[in-house]
Design brief:
- The protein is an alpha+beta fold and 209 residues long.
- The chain has a single domain, classed as Alpha-Beta Complex (Creatine Amidinohydrolase).
- It has four helices and twelve strands; from the N terminus they run H-E-H-E-E-H-H-E-E-E-E-E-E-E-E-E.
- The strands form four sheets. It has a four-stranded mixed β-sheet, covered by helices on one side.
- The longest helix is centred in the middle third of the chain and has 20 residues, at 79-98.
- The protein is globular.
């Protein structure tokens, strides 16, 4: 994609690349520039890309769904946006690290809420759902502070923390020893986050200069 394209055009490109790989794009959401801060779940419009784009995809293959968000910025990233991207990466890593067998979904979510506060954004979690278990749907249900279900090995989760203007989302598989990020994008820039002695790589905003 490139500046000057409409959100419709970007959505069409994303759908084409996805379908060519045998994956059905069941959710295809695009926002550019100021619309990223205005909408957390943005249906594409005729708005043309200037500098900043958010692409959100839920793809189904062989009956199973993965969810992923990536952000692209043409030109140097503004300092405020970089701070938000780093903070949301920290929050996402906290959620991923906490999603371990035997822990309640409520406890995992509360770890994320605590991370929002510790990074200076205590109320942002209230502005959009934070994700939850996935598999046959983009989310089997949305995690809430009342979710009493427990995480088990073999489950899939997709967390999607967001701070106005920035977001982090991948799909993870819960393993016996660790979690696997199923939607890792080779070659994409990442932010390395240390959690409990482990390094979790979260997607950074791709800067094209």
């Amino acid at each position: 994609m490139h500046p000057g394209q409409s959100e419709y055009e970007i959505a069409a490109l994303l759908a084409s690349e996805t379908e060519q790989r045998g994956v059905q794009a069941t959710v295809n959401l695009i926002a550019t520039d100021e619309r990223i801060s205005q909408f957390r779940h943005p249906l594409p419009t005729g708005k043309k890309l200037d500098r900043y784009a958010m692409l959100i995809l839920c793809g189904r293959k062989q009956g199973l769904v993965c969810s992923v968000t990536r952000l692209v910025h043409f030109g140097r990233l503004p300092d405020e946006l970089r701070r938000k991207a780093e903070a949301v990466a920290q929050i996402d890593a906290a959620l991923i690290a906490a999603t371990r067998p035997g822990r309640t979904v409520r406890a995992v979510l509360l770890r994320g809420i605590k991370a929002y506060a510790s990074h200076g954004y205590p109320d942002e979690w209230r502005l959009h759902h934070q994700g939850g278990p996935a598999g046959y749907e983009p989310r089997e249900y949305l995690a809430t502070p009342d979710s009493s279900e427990r995480v088990t090995v073999g489950q899939v989760y997709a967390w999607n923390p967001s701070i106005t203007g920035a977001k982090s989302e991948d799909t993870i598989l819960i393993g016996n020893r660790s979690n696997e990020i199923l939607t890792h994008t080779p070659g994409w820039p990442t932010i390395a986050v240390e959690v409990n002695g482990f390094t979790i790589e979260r997607p950074a905003i791709l800067e094209i200069t």
